[in-house]
Amino acid sequence: MISISGSVVLFISSAFLQQGQALSVDGPSLLSRRAAVSALSTAAICSSTALAPAAANAATEDKPNRSFRRYPSIRFIAALGDPNSSSGSGVETWGLWRDDPGPRGVYLKDYDRRLKSNNNVAPAGWTFDPSDWWVEEHGLIMSTPEPLPRKSVNKETKEIIPEKQYVVTGDRDITTVLTVRDDGTWELEKGTLYDVTHLPCRSAAYRGDGCAPMNANLKDFPVKPGAEMPVINGCLKQDYAVLFVLGEAV
Q1: d(C-alpha 135, C-alpha 158), whole Å
Q2: Is 41 exposed, middle or buried (0-12, 13-18, 19+ CB in 10 A)?
Q3: What tens digit of pLDDT does each residue of 107-126 get?
Q4: What is the pTM (predicted TM-score) of this model?
Q5: pLDDT tens, 85-105?
Q6: Helix/strand/coil (H, E, C) string of the chain?
Q7: List of residues 6+ apart from 196 with CB closer than 8 A
């Protein structure tokens, strides 16, 4: 069984989270994405919304004993699906950022100077894709997320398992286990996709011929928590929910 209770984590430096540390699932206290980034860069505790404590135990009698490894820093899933559902399909369209893409981003207003003039390579080293570019709630162009891994490996037999489990939260009331499968299906052990969405984090992909950052209206940013991302002229927009990922099954 898994439990989700753990010590409070304040993101002052990465030393507070040791890679390989066991992860419990009854609600460690975590700062919001933006506050966590600020804390890491300033080495000071910022005021922010703490993760609601005491998420329900995710283990039930029909589930085997499991253990989870805490990531050294929060990762982020870009998810598509019915916000009121606890399961669905289409995981092949989901993405993963292993690092917070916000601080590594480039503001829309700086596109010409910091991306276009540098062969579409951002100062942080990632490459801007004109056919598929992402923007967050403050108007920062982000790196395109990688496909979300959907397979895992049995550490004893080395067998490839056609599913992967993550501990996710929306930094509100629920911390739970998300199972994604190689067939594209997904399932939450508790709550809905909305419950594990971090509402202040907004993200959207902008695609299509003639879709360019200079078409954005800068007055549309920042975006309010829970609101849709702005339409940009010439672009096909796809909004994504953002989930905090605390760790994975091992």
Answers
A1: 38
A2: exposed
A3: 999 999 999 999 999 999 99
A4: 0.78
A5: 999 999 999 999 999 999 999
A6: CCCCCCCCCCCCCHHHCCCCCEECCCCCCCCCHHHHHHHHHHCCCCCCCCCCCCCCCCCCCCCCCCCEEEEEEEEEEEECCCCCCCEECCHHHCEEECCCCCCCCEEHHHHHHHCHHHCCECCCCCECCCCCEEEECCCEEECCCEECCCCEECCCCCCEECEEEEEEECCCCCEEEEEEECCCCEEECCCCCCCCCCCCCCEEEEECCCCCHHHCCHHHCCCCCCCCCCCCCCCEEEEEEEEEEEEEEC
A7: 168, 169, 170, 174, 175, 176, 178, 188, 243, 244
Nearest to 215 by CA among 229, 203, 233, 231: 233
Question: Tokens 């100077």, residue?
Answer: 113
The more confident residue out of 15 and 2 is 2
pLDDT-derived band at 49 (thresholds 50, 70, 90) equals very low
219-241: per-residue pLDDT in tens? 999 999 889 999 999 999 999 99
Mean pLDDT (whole number) for 23-36: 46
Cis peptide before 222 (omega within 30 of 0): yes
Burial of 166 (0-12, 13-18, 19+ CB in 10 A): buried
Residues written for the chain: 250
Closest to 212 in 3D by CA, of 138, 112, 137: 112
